[in-house]
Amino acid sequence: xxxxxxxxxxxxxxxxxxxxxxxxxxxxxxxxxxxxxxxxxxxxxxxxxxxxxxxxxxxxxxxxxxxxxxxxxxxxxxxxxxx
Length: 83
What we know:
Blueprint: H1 4-22, H2 32-43, H3 48-57, H4 70-82
Helix pairs in contact: 1-2
């Protein structure tokens, strides 16, 4: 089961990864065509601001904060495993 905060962080981490792929100083041995593909993926990729709006409008899909209570997360994982 993927939780809303996990989806949010997956999208924002993917944006950072694609940006690093575009930067030859951070990723020096990446082929040019891969850099171009990363650049094109970023063209319409949702920004952090877009993701914050999405989290506000659809909190069941995206959530900006990690759960405060780790016990709750453990219980959710356990219940998902029982299904």
